[in-house]
Amino acid sequence: FIMLTYIFMLAWLGVTAFTSLPVYMYFNLWTICRNATVVDGANLCLDLRQYGIVTIGEEKKVCTSSESFIKMCDSNELNMTFHLFIVALAGAGAAVIAMVHYLMVLSANWAYVKDACRMQKYEDIKSKEEQELHDIHSTRSKERLNAYT
């Protein structure tokens, strides 16, 4: 179970890393939208090559002067998508924290059971030795009693 939990934790760590990228992209896009509305006439551009969406050879820029960019910034879908990506990132982060906690608890329980097993073996050996000593002592006592009679 420890190894399986470790593998699942690594998988959730990958999901967390994967969900952090859209949050970063949407945060940059949201910042450009807010700055474009504050500073009128400024032509701010977002180069999609820096995110790996398009290849390096292509030049794809989204600029604030275009009509589609203004519509995108004014839409409710951008804000809703940004908040949903944040919720997904928080959920994946919570899953990673839960997996780390479960891994620590599972490891501690395994160590406790292993130690209890060793202690049980020790107690068994100790009781056998005590029983043997008791048998030897009672045998000698009987021999002494027989010697007096």
What does this structure look like?
By secondary structure, the chain is mainly alpha-helical. Helices cover 79% and strands 4% of the residues. A two-stranded antiparallel ribbon has the order 1-2. The protein starts with a helix and ends with a helix. The model has no long low-confidence stretch (mean pLDDT 82).
Question: What descriptive keywords fit this protein?
Answer:
two-stranded antiparallel ribbon, 2 strands, 79% helix
Present the secondary structure layout.
Layout: H1 2-38, E1 45-47, E2 61-63, H2 67-74, H3 76-148
Antiparallel strand pairs: 1-2
Helix pairs in contact: 1-3
The count of domains is 1
What's the story with the biggest beta sheet?
2 strands, antiparallel
Strand content: under 5%
Question: Helix-strand pattern, N to C?
Answer: HEEHH
Widest β-sheet, arrangement of strands? 1-2
Low-confidence stretches: none
Helix content: over 70%
- Give me the number of helical elements: 3
Structural class: mainly alpha
Number of strands: 2
Global geometry: rod-shaped
What radius of gyration results from the CA coordinates?
Answer: 35 Å
Calculate the terminal CA-CA distance, rounded to whole Å.
66 Å
InterPro entries: Myelin_PLP, Myelin_PLP_CS
Membrane topology: Multi-pass membrane protein
Subcellular location: Cell projection, Dendritic spine; Membrane
Protein name: Neuronal membrane glycoprotein M6-a
